[in-house]
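Sample entry (319 residues):
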Amino acid sequence: MKRFATALTLICMGLLLGQPQPTRAATKPGLTLEPYIKELTIGADDASSGFDLHVTNNSGRDGNFQLTAVDFGSLNDSGGLLFGGVNESKLVKKYGLANWLTLPKQPVAIKQGVSTAVRVTLTNDRNLTPGGHYAGVFITPTFGAASPKININQTVTALVLAVKKGGDVHDLRLVHTSDDHSLFRAPARATLSFHNPGNVHVVPRGIVMLKQGDTVVAKGIINEQSAFVLPEARRKYDVALKPQKGAKPGWLTTTYTMQVDYRYDGYQYYASSHYQLRVWNAAAYEIGAVVVLGFGVVLLLAFRRKKSRPRRFKLFRHE
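Predicted structure, serialized as tokens:
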């Protein structure tokens, strides 16, 4: 009885100790920015526009911070960004924004654990052409002496996407569609390549449908991450196709239609593109293979039977 009581006590203590204990919310170390992406709109006759960039110092010590604005553009169709510099491309210069951004006096002092609002101002003039303009605001700590608690080379970036009205052109074109179907398997993923021929960034939206006749057998949503395409740039988007209904396979092959209905944010009408693909049915292939194999076996047996028959000799005499 005493052993049982001891065991019961240990079990109860284990259950109590095993209960989840309340924990404090973890504070992200280093620097944090809010918002990470900011969209600004300025009228053709507006003098300026701006926003507050909230910088939080969780580095472990007080410090000064240097702010720098740098133009950016598309690196390639993967969605990577190319920040400008001394040898920045013509396209990055064309849609640059850094020359029109005004930042506070440098450096900005922020104490440990404190969030400070930094004012970023976009100043309009006749040299700022209508359309989209883009820059990143880099914030770098300048602590001086190195500290084991923080990497003093840490740099955080906020992206500014500005649009000047009075000549902004929004457009989006689907230039290529591919999928991952194989000889015996229907596609489970589609890859879309979009081109933006306008002068303003756009965010693609839409749906990809895999259809058999009028039946949608799989579908996926385009750009659930709300990633943008910069002006005069291309970008690829992968779309996972989720099965909806079972397809009705044909005798030898199944024909599907891949349909893409797309638009961009702020535009309500959809453009549509489609193509057909054909998948062989594995069951029909297996049946055909069995039939061919059976026919080959019959031919082989017939050949062997013919070969095993005794030869007949015709007798004749010489005169």
